[in-house]
Specification:
heterodimer, A: mainly beta, Folate-binding fold, four-stranded antiparallel sheet, two-stranded antiparallel sheet, 1 helix, B: about 1000 residues, alpha+beta, Ubiquitin-like (UB roll), FAD/NAD(P)-binding domain, seven-stranded mixed sheet, six-stranded mixed sheet, 23 helices
């Protein structure tokens, strides 16, 4: 698998650390009800198809990326800096 | 036997080798298989299950039979295919799976028991009695089964891993591959051509064909020479592309030194990861057998292989041969063998309407071979006429062709299924099966050379054009365009065992039996019969097996489907995949600047993550680590000790908003910290559990330095990057790891200030440098940082210098300390010192504890948000928990980390578990063992006596619960 890092270019996935769903970007407000925090921490979609994941370019520039890919075809559709994007 | 004037071997260069202990002579250019065939040796191995004698079936990497062990001792390499092992001076090979010898194998008795050993035999037979499985059946089966054996010794050979990148990867060096490489290279694209054989040419090496009116190999040589002159082309021979992966990543195994008498510094093999923007698969096709009774006798081989042995190595299996096929291609074998002067006694074509294309040879259209005769060598065949009459012919070799299967394997590695083509009775790759990969030549069912050349040229050009390169289709040379015609024939009807999978001994009957027992899915049939599950992955048997399954279940072949093709295409040694990762190569080693000095002082070095740290520094007369450890602890408490703490993570943070950023990542407040001051901080994960702890110093208004634990340095850096980039984008904060840029030493003990003041360019005192103070100092003119912090709980400093001064500073500090009754101390002493003080490490903050558990609930500030704060307040995380406590033994015996705590009268079973011990050490100051651990509601239970039990190590003692801080609970010593 190869990931197009917007800063370093396309690199082998071994340079990256995988975190999980990009919904982690959508951090609830401090005072949000516990149920909202529970959803944020524990509940994940398990899509057959398009997905947005967080990857960290650990052996590269140190950027956190949102990688869009397809869990069925394994196609990597693109990657953007976390600094430049929002959660779903 | 060798045929004069044939083959590409060098008849002037004899090569000496040994097989089963007998010294023999072959020729340069031979494979082990061709050299043995030249001497009339056709018996090369025994089959897996029945120990039937087996000979060479193919001339390539798909070989199921001729598996041998090459080289000896620790270097022995089992299951090497004799058909691809190039001969070299001194090569040693032995046959496998036979005892006592290849010629006389006692386990061949299995062959007589064959009626009982059919499909599913193991499943049905070894079911009961249950207890027999472990003691009797499994050991027995393990002894009887299996191919070659590993040496069991450490592999002394060197292997490598490497990466390569290209625009167009061409897989296969035959006519299609060469044309694809040439067409792509002409456009200027970077091309890698991988070729499994020692030289390009593919099938042309094994045929007698013309291109542009001249021998085909002249064209091959000219094309290779043209490619070799170009800077944008790399030809990799002896390199098998073994797998296709996502985003144009391909795995390839290069056999670097396996054909050389001496590796001479070269690795034996190199595993490549090739990142290709586009790829062309031109892997050719593999010929398939026809099943008939005893079709596994040594001397029966693929018709195409028989031609290959003749044209490449000038060898034939005997004086008289026959050829049996269901297609025109088989006729070439009869023709070529007759041209070479071999007695072709019959060309048998199962098609009644076939025309003889082999010239003057006895032709049997519509006939079939019903049986092969002989034991360790083929002696005769029985033919069956269309009217059922039988005729027996004496032969020494039989070439068989059931047609050709395109090598679709790589196109299926990412999940695609191949498509059935009725006209060639074979599976071909599905279009777009692997993104960026196109297929050319025989691999997509184009079998004539002319078509392969055109296919390759078009695919190579298209691949380059898709990447933006431009060029024209190269000149297409004139070549053979004979059509490939066949009529399907999978098995010849009749009694007896007709073999499909030679390596796993699966017969036509086994497949039919699987179907009869309702294993009708091809994947079930495969597992029930083990068809296709051996090291050759059924390359020559899969299609016939599923065709027979289709027939037995009344379905057509596309409906029956194929089993799954998975990487690798051919076996790859684990040693090659994991090259470099043996022994100390398994993980990188990180050394501190004091490493050499510590080793010179005799300190045993222990791993701390990737770092190596001194365990203790033994002195003369100390015979046990505890002697050294106790002395070092006392030294720190009473004089002064030096410890390298450089392995702690150090993160340099700069910007206007560092304080606000730290407020968000730490539970406690940092924005109020004054320049020149240090604060202890606690970091949570978002789920409310403790991630890490450490001190952060504010060097100046906008410049801070954070320390993390050694264990969590990488995790904290990743976390800070996450929090900054995801949630604190607007903040003016920049940070970077400086762990390796600064060497840092703890100077701990009552004499620490005196020691430092002998070194620093200007002395410090308690007033200007109180506890938790930090600031710039100079040591011998070198700018350094001084921190008044203490992990030992002693009056202490930490002094940091740029790493290049670390080694000399350590020497200086240790020498001064020794002059003051102290010295260096290691991890063991450090551990005791911090246990005495109840200071936590990742033994305590192991991922399942909260701030509440370690007694730091009040460190979670109520005035601000921070990572983990919301979920740390969840029900269940702040009441009725296992809380940090101190422990001391009351009865005889030692505390033990990992032991569990039970009520004094309770039975030590998990239902009664009250907590567990995380850290222990002997405290010279307290004169007893001290421990830290977690105990249910432990803070309210100080003074209580409990039972500490470790069932595994046989410990059962009584302990008393205490406050975690055992030594100097008021902290008077560290404040001075």
């Amino acid at each position: 698998m190869r990931i197009p890092c917007p800063i370093c270019g396309t690199r082998d996935r071994r340079e990256f650390y995988y975190q999980g769903a990009a919904s982690m970007l959508d951090r609830p407000a401090a005072e949000a009800p516990l149920e909202v925090w529970h959803d944020y921490l524990h509940l994940r979609d398990n899509p057959a198809g398009g997905t947005r994941d967080l990857w960290y370019h650990a052996s590269g520039c140190g950027s956190w990326l949102v990688v869009e890919r397809d869990t069925v075809t394994h196609e990597v559709l693109g990657a953007a800096l976390v600094e430049a994007c929002d959660a779903d | 036997m060798r045929i004069d004037g044939k083959g590409r071997v060098d008849r002037t260069r004899p090569v000496t080798y040994s097989f089963d202990g007998v010294t023999r002579t072959g020729l340069a250019g031979d494979t082990l298989a061709s050299a043995l065939m030249a001497e009339g040796e056709l018996l090369l191995g025994r089959s897996f299950k029945y120990h039937r004698p087996r000979g060479v079936l193919t001339a390539g990497s798909e070989e199921p039979n001729a598996l041998v062990t090459v080289r000896t001792g620790a270097q022995a390499d089992p299951n090497t295919r004799a058909t691809v092992q190039e001969l070299y001076e001194g090569l040693t090979a032995v046959s496998q799976n036979r005892w006592p010898s290849l010629d006389f194998d006692l386990l061949a008795v299995n062959n007589l028991a064959a009626p009982f050993l059919g499909a599913g035999f193991y499943y049905k037979t070894f079911m009961w009695p249950k207890a027999f499985w472990e003691k009797l059946y499994e050991p027995m089966i393990r002894r009887a089964a299996g191919l070659g054996a590993l040496s069991g010794a450490h592999d002394p050979d060197r292997y490598e891993r490497a990466f390569a990148f290209c625009d167009v990867l061409v897989i296969g060096g035959g006519p299609a591959g060469l044309m694809a490489a040439w067409a792509a290279a002409k456009t200027g694209a970077d091309v890698i051509l991988c070729c499994e054989e020692p030289e390009p040419g593919g099938r042309l090496l094994s045929e007698d064909e013309q291109i542009e009116g001249r021998p085909a190999l002249d064209w091959v040589q000219e094309t290779v020479a043209l490619l070799a002159t170009r800077d944008n082309v790399r030809i990799m021979t002896r390199t098998t592309v073994t797998g296709a992966f996502d985003q144009g990543t391909y795995g390839a195994l290069e056999r670097v030194a396996g054909h050389l008498p001496e590796a001479d510094g070269l690795p034996l093999e190199c595993f490549w990861r090739i990142a290709a923007r586009r790829a062309v698969l031109a892997a050719g096709a593999l010929e398939r057998h026809v099943a008939f009774r005893d079709n596994d006798r040594p001397g029966v081989m693929m018709a195409g292989a028989m031609r290959a042995y003749l044209h490449r190595w000038g060898v034939v299996p005997g004086q008289s041969v026959a050829v049996f096929g269901n297609n025109d291609d088989a006729h070439r074998t009869a023709r070529d063998m007759a041209h070479a002067g071999v007695d072709v006694v019959a060309l048998i074509d199962s098609r009644h309407d076939a025309e003889n294309r082999a010239g003057d040879v006895p032709f049997y259209p519509g006939w079939q071979v019903a049986r092969a005769h002989g034991g360790k060598a083929l002696e005769a065949i029985t033919l069956r006429a269309p009217n059922g009459r039988h005729e027996k012919l004496a032969v020494q070799g039989l070439g068989v062709s059931g047609g050709w299967n395109p090598s679709v394997h790589l196109t299926c590695h990412t999940g695609a299924r191949p498509v059935w083509r009725d006209d060639i009775a074979a599976f071909v790759p599905r279009d777009g099966a692997v993104p960026g990969l196109s297929v050319a030549g025989a691999a997509r069912g184009t079998f004539d050379t002319s078509g392969c050349l055109r296919d390759g040229a078009e695919a190579g050009l298209e691949a380059a054009q898709a990447l933006g390169f431009s060029g024209a289709l190269p000149h297409l040379p004139q070549a053979d365009a004979s059509p490939y015609r066949l009529r399907r024939l999978w098995a010849v009807a009749g009694k007896g065992r007709a073999w499909l999978d030679f390596q796993n001994d699966v017969t036509v009957k086994d497949v039919k039996q699987a179907a009869a027992e309702n294993y009708v899915s091809v994947e079930h049939m495969k597992r029930y019969t083990t068809q296709g599950m051996a090291t050759d992955q059924g390359k020559s048997s899969n299609v016939a097996a599923l065709a027979i399954l289709a027939d037995a279940t009344g379905r057509d072949i596309p409906e029956t489907g194929t089993t799954t093709f998975r990487p690798p295409y051919s076996p790859v040694a684990i040693a090659a995949l994991g090259a470099g990762a043996q022994g100390m190569g398994f993980a990188p080693q990180r050394f501190t600047t004091s490493h050499k000095a510590s080793v010179a002082m005799g300190a045993p070095m222990i791993e701390a993550g990737l770092w190596y740290r001194p365990s203790y520094f033994p002195r003369k007369g100390e015979t046990h680590w505890r002697h050294s450890c106790d002395r070092e602890v006392t030294m720190v408490r009473e004089a002064v000790g030096i410890c390298d703490v450089s392995t702690l993570g150090k993160i340099d943070l700069q910007g206007r908003d560092v304080g606000a950023f730290l407020d968000f990542v730490y539970t406690n407040t940092f924005s109020t910290l004054k320049p020149g001051r240090v604060r202890y901080g606690l970091m949570l994960r978002e789920d409310g559990h403790v991630m890490d702890d450490g001190t952060t110093a504010r060097l100046s208004d906008k410049h801070w330095v954070m320390t993390t634990t050694t264990a969590a340095a990488g995790e904290v850096m990743r976390h800070l990057d996450w929090v900054k980039q995801a949630f604190c984008r607007e903040m003016d904060v920049r940070f970077i790891s400086v762990t390796e840029q600064w060497a840092q030493f703890a100077v701990a003990g009552p004499n620490s200030r005196a020691l430092l003041n002998g070194l620093l360019d200007s002395p410090v005192d308690d007033e200007s440098f109180p506890f938790m103070q930090c600031g710039p100092v100079t040591v011998g003119g070198v700018e350094a940082r001084l921190f008044r912090i203490s992990f030992s709980g002693e009056y202490a400093y930490e002094l940091a210098v740029p790493a290049r001064y670390g080694a000399s500073l350590f020497d200086l500090l240790v020498a001064r300390a020794e002059g003051m009754g102290g010295g260096a101390y290691g991890m063991e002493a450090l551990n005791v010192l911090r246990i005495e003080k109840g200071h936590i490490t990742h033994s305590e903050i192991h991922g399942r504890v909260t701030a509440f558990d370690i007694g730091f609930a009040r460190m979670v500030s109520g005035k601000k948000d921070c990572i983990g704060k919301a979920l740390a307040a969840r029900p269940g995380l702040n009441e009725d928990r296992e809380e940090l406590v101190g422990l001391r033994p009351v009865s005889a015996g030692h505390l033990i980390a990992g032991g569990h705590l039970f009520g004094e009268g309770a039975e030590p079973v998990s239902a009664n578990d009250q907590g567990y011990v995380t850290s222990v050490g002997y405290s010279p100051a307290m004169g007893c063992d001290l421990g830290l651990g977690f105990l249910r509601n432990g803070r309210a239970r100080h003074g209580e006596k409990l039972r500490l039990v470790d069932h595994l190590r046989g410990v059962d003692i009584v302990v008393q619960v205490t406050d975690p801080v055992a030594f100097d609970p008021e902290g008077g010593r560290l404040r001075g």
